[in-house]
Queue: 4 jobs
Job 1
Amino acid sequence: LKLQFLYFIGSTHEAHVKHTNTMPLVRTGTHPINRTVHCRTYKQYNGHAGITYLNCPSGFHMTGGGMEEMTHSTGKLSVFEDSAPHGNGWKCDSGEGEGKNNCYVRCCR
């Protein structure tokens, strides 16, 4: 069983962009907003998981995030301890001890 949650927090480690896209910004009513929203998903692997904080870069706002458990077992190292928003980013914590996880954050401007 593989669980993934979409939330995000910042990281003290350097993250890389996993996915980038743009989408039109619209609103309900008769007049659309003529603006494009640019979003990026950042991912940070932590092989000795304590807590990983992953933050959106300047000018971007956190819109979601999550954590992927990478131990792929049923033991104490695969426990999800925390995956939640944290400031303008995401916080990930897995394993009772040093678990392994990918932490994700979705950032838009």
Job 2
Amino acid sequence: EKRNKMNKYLLAAVVLLGLVFAFEAKRVAFVLHFEGHCEHNVTYCESKALSQRINSVITPNNGPETTFTKSIGSHAIFSQHLRVQNGGRFFDRGNMTFGIHLDRQHSIYFRSFGVGHYAKQGDRYVAGSTIDVVDGGGVFQHVRGLASILSVYHPDGKLENNVWGELEVPNHVELQ
């Protein structure tokens, strides 16, 4: 009987371990440089990133230097709805879509993870925030994750977004 009990515990442990591996998520890290525009009242912004290679080096004379080189490939669209408040604070929500797909969008949906902050630097505004990825569509269905955004808003309405993120994609999703 003791051996039978031990076999049941062993079987339960194997099943539990199998469930853990079955539901483990794939991690997808990304860094993208977007360029776009904002409406004049800065409540909606949209920017686009082409496929790119980002190279950052630390030089002995000049410190950090980064170059963005366009690559052959698809693109991403970053859409933000902003709720700007006094005191240099804002909240945002929106989505990012990846690639050109006629039958379905590969998207992530996000909202603010806390308060974002902005400040005037010369004639432009610089903003930083963290977003909470709460869901997605296409290959990113049921995705979770976080991303940090550094934005520069120019007086002519031009927008630059640098986005660093990590997504957890459910294991059952096939990433191409």
Job 3
Amino acid sequence: KAVVSTQSTGKEEEERITVRRSQLPTDQLLAMDTSVKLNQLVKEYSDTASMVMLNMPPPPQYKDAITDQNYVEYLDVLTEGLPRVLLVRGSGTEVVTVYS
């Protein structure tokens, strides 16, 4: 269950992340750790930004209720504590148009 809070202390945030991590299968802990580290870097380098734009990680190939929930948890941890986030997801095909 995702916990959404607009204001939290660092300790509360760390406790929520720890609870979520304990509920993940071992093979997904690496991805969650990456999400936590990226979140910390974004906070460090964008602490005065009004909005942060991030590339949205691709959804998992195999879909079921648990995989979907883990993906949403991953995004939740990635964006936790950031005031405004725009997740951008492309089609994977770049189109370059040249006007002359």
Job 4
Amino acid sequence: RRVVAMAAGWLDDEAERGAGERRKQVVVVVTEGWSVMCFDHNLQLVWENSIKSDFPPHASLREVAVM
């Protein structure tokens, strides 16, 4: 799998966590094969989803943003 985009962030809202509780980041990766994968702070796979069916067969990736 070839990575075409990667971003780090949080799944929870800062206001949702308790006082003194540390936030744990996640990493989201988009691959050339239209897979989106989310990894936890230990880089363990949390979920994976294919978005290929959401685009026409002739579509190609030119720019990707992970938000």
